[in-house]
Amino acid sequence: MNVYPDPVASGLVDLRSDTVTRPTPEMRRAMAEAEVGDDVYGEDPTVNALEEAFARRVGKQASVYVPSGVMGNQLALRVLAPAATTVVAGARQHVVVYEEGAAGRNAGVQFHTVADQDGTFGPDDVRWAIDAAQHHHPRPSLVCVENTHMPANGAPWPLQRLEQVAGVARSGGLALHMDGARLFHAEAATGTQAAAYAATADTVMCCLSKGLCAPVGSMLAGTDEVVAAARVERARLGGAMRQAGVIAAAGLVALRTMIDRLPEDHRRARRLAGAVAERWPGAVDPDGVETNIVTFAHADPQALIAHLRSEGVLAGTIAPGVVRLVTHHDVDDDGIERAAKALASAP
Known about the structure:
There is one protein chain. The chain is an alpha/beta fold. The chain has helices at 7-10, 25-32, 45-57, 69-80, 94-97, 102-106, 123-132, 159-171, 183-190, 194-198, 224-236, 245-257, 262-279, 301-310, 333-344, and strands at 13-14, 62-66, 86-90, 110-114, 140-146, 175-179, 203-207, 218-222, 293-297, 313-314, 316-319, 322-326. It has two domains: 25-257, 3-Layer(aba) Sandwich (Aspartate Aminotransferase, domain 2), CATH 3.40.640; 261-344, Aspartate Aminotransferase, domain 1, CATH 3.90.1150. Helix 8 (159-171) links the parallel strand 5 (140-146) and strand 6 (175-179). Helix 2 runs antiparallel to helix 12 and helix 3 runs parallel beside helix 12 (245-257).
């Protein structure tokens, strides 16, 4: 893992991830002044307010505050997918690739992976997995979707396609979990409300600590019954927190103030995609970048990252030969132009 000095203090343009965002001054004030209590006893008023606000925002009965998006996804697996069943998911989804194999250890499930090159898959993929159980294949219990889909340039799901997948899942007795780490980016890019997306799913997870700039935490929403079960699993995974209102306060500010500005990040990502396409024609289609993530293949990612670093720009990788650039609140237009210039001069 590369360790850099404080990017803000060093004047670096940090495009490694939107997890590097800093809490805003309003968040810091809210954290300092937060009313708190013991959340394990349900007595932290700020956590309770955050959980209620998020559940309303995504049209669910209840939600639970968790330390990370990974924990939110893992709770959904533990609650919705019995051990020794399979979970239908895109081959490049976060829950499959980027959670250190947690599903096998935490939930005792296997993945039935399907092609998701454009960030989605289809109802026939789910139907095949259901039918295969009649031929001695493991029985599927859950479908997972990722919205937006990070490796596919942060692609949002078209609502109609998602509804088709959800319909086949339900007809086959499968639940559906939405990894909506960047759900509000999908809302901002498509105009489809987060609640409309979430209506297709039994559970929906969303990160507050990525593009929404809160320093800690994610939300998992569903029915009262499912969220109650998730609280038990949260405790089993060591995720129960005490006076968590100190950090939940920033989450409330995030929901209130950081969603409407997301199109700025999307516009800046398209600018970066244009710079990549100009330097390496065919590497990425700028018109296909709808949210805040640009991914592209490169022959020597480490050499490119070193070059960008020498120009004051930080970037990262997500797979062998695949570079990622992520826009966020802490990178302005000047930073994007600096990055575009660095890309243009890359060897």
